[in-house]
Amino acid sequence: MIKTMLRGGAWLAATLVLLAAAGYVYYRSLALDELPKANPQASVADLAYLKQAVAQKRGRILAVVSSAERGGPAMKRAGYELTELARAYYVFQVNGYEVDIASPQGGKPPERIDPDDMGETDYAFLNDPAAQAKVVNSMALADVDARRYAAVYFVGGKGAMHDLPDNPDVARIVNEVATRGVVGAVCHGPAALLGVKRADGKALLAGRRMTAFTNEEELFLVKDARTRFGFLLEERATAEGARFVAGPKYLDNTIVDGRLVTGQNAWSTWSVAEAMVAALGHRPVARERSAEEISVRLLATYHRAGLDAASAEQAALPRFDKMLVLMHSVVAAMQWRAADAVNLQRLAKG
């Protein structure tokens, strides 16, 4: 019996060693350690895009972020997403708009930074003295004169679920801007539009095509989201009469309904900002797409047309974000979509 157990244990140990070795070989084949990394010291001067700024001064856009550092029954961390502010900030600026930053309480709002999501534009924003002065000294919403702005843009982040819905100052600003300008929001940012009523007493979102962080995206990441936030964004927007348009999980999906522009998640930030510029009547300044954006497009092709089409597209691309494609592979595996998990790993390897 003892010899049998020892023999079985030896076979098990050998199998685990072989699996570990195979896993290591596979990891090395992905060459993840060789992927380029964003420069934390990046500055405004390093961004070629900003050198293309239009000379014309076209007005001002108000970017609104949450003041809620924590929220919900368990007081979980909240705040706003820095990438969703930084990228839109520079799109607006390049296209001729001065950007002001406001929050419900004013002062320095709590930001959320995920190093894995940071690109050179985001680091440049952190290293931009003028931009940081606006962040640190954000205006209180109560002090905002909405007549000064051609558009208002609501930044996402979980904090937006706590202090932007049913906010009377938000409603005042939105109703003033909506009469002549553009209202935009991304990810959890559309929560700001909940509870806003038009002059006729109807919900602002009633009958409007829009999107936001979906139930599927929310519940995949936060199983107790209904308890944590008190509502799900998609459900409440639909209850207020919105014609909610959900795209694939964690891919760019921007919906334009006249002068209302909304984006589904953080990967929609660039397209929301540029769609807002277009809704204001201008062709957005051309911009080289980031590796992340290219990968999002590649993933969209995969979901729409399959692996062969995505592989053919990937072969023609100058670059893409391998880690983002692998992240979607992991998501597929966690949802027991084995074929997608394998195919996306193949796509990531190129």
Topology, please?
Layout (H helix, E strand, L loop, with lengths): L1 H29 L28 E6 L5 E2 L4 E2 L2 E2 H13 L2 E7 L7 E2 L7 H7 L2 H8 L2 E2 L10 E4 L5 H4 L4 H11 L3 E5 L22 E2 L4 H7 L3 H5 L3 H7 L3 E2 L9 E4 L2 E4 L5 H11 L11 H15 L1 H9 L6 H13 L3 H12 L1
Parallel strand pairs: 1-5, 1-8, 4-6, 5-7, 8-9, 9-13, 10-11
Antiparallel strand pairs: 2-3, 12-13
Overview of the molecule:
- The chain has helices spanning 2-30, 82-94, 120-126, 129-136, 160-163, 168-178, 215-221, 225-229, 233-239, 269-279, 291-305, 307-315, 322-334, 338-349, and strands at 59-64, 70-71, 76-77, 80-81, 97-103, 111-112, 139-140, 151-154, 182-186, 209-210, 243-244, 254-257, 260-263.
- With 350 residues, the chain is an alpha/beta fold.
- The strands form four sheets. It has a seven-stranded mixed beta sheet.
- It is globular.
Q: What best-fitting shape do the alpha-carbon axes yield?
A: globular
Secondary-structure class: alpha/beta
Please report the number of helical segments.
Answer: 14
Strand content range: 5-15%
Strand order of the largest sheet: 7-5-1-8-9-13-12
Low-confidence stretches: 1-29
Instruction: Give, in order, the helices and strands.
Output: HEEEEHEEHHEEHHEEHHHEEEHHHHH
Report the helical percentage. Answer: 40-55%
Termini separation (Å)?
50 Å
Radius of gyration (CA) equals 23 Å
Give the overall average pLDDT.
89
Question: What distinguishing features does this structure have?
Answer:
single chain, 350 residues, alpha/beta, seven-stranded mixed beta sheet, two-stranded antiparallel sheet, 13 strands, 43% helix, 13% strand, disordered N terminus
